[in-house]
Amino acid sequence: MDKRLFLATAGLAGLMPATAALAATSGTRSPGLLTVSGAVGKTNRGALDPVTDQMMAKHGIRFDKAFVFEAGDLQRLPQVTIRPTLEYDGKPHALKGPLLTSVLQAAGVAPGASMSLGLRAVDGYNAAVSLADAAAWRMVVATHIDGQPMALGGLGPQWAVYDADSLPAFKDKPLNERFAVCPWGLYHIDVKAA
Ligand SMILES: Nc1nc2c(c(=O)[nH]1)N[C@H]1C(S)=C(S)[C@@H](COP(=O)(O)O)O[C@H]1N2
Ligand SMILES: [Mo]
Prior knowledge:
This protein is an alpha+beta fold.
């Protein structure tokens, strides 16, 4: 049996997720949802392309190489759920995704490294956070809110966010001052040696 037929059959037989079988047989990839560039030890794409990387170019992002995550790549990392009270309705919500440190580690950034991070969102918003703070705050690259994937145009495709309710640095602040370094619509992370 050739590889394509095997993959299609395995997919139909429920031996692998249908989407994985489909991707393998069609040779297609899903869109990159999060690009990590700068001081990354693992790369899966080349330099910023001034033709196809329009949003990153407009946001002043430059790189020689980067590691790009598709939705499945983020979902395959260990998942955590936090339940912070959000400023938008004053209610706790379940936010699920990998830890930011797990994402960076997958891109070859050592957890204890002395790095500064630029967390860039689709509207151009940028939050500067040290890797040490991101780790101490257990910042999550959330992809789901209350069990639903977060859409582009909403809070997604990713939201870098922490459990402000339980963090000394944020819990006593007014709700609308707790999340200034938490970009929703996160799509790029710049990693720089601090
Ligand atoms: N993408 C994006 N994320 C953002 C912001 C923003 O303007 N864009 N504002 C930040 C600030 S300053 C705060 S206080 C909170 C809430 O801002 P918002 O009402 O613009 O979401 O989100 C933070 N994350
Ligand atoms: Mo703010």
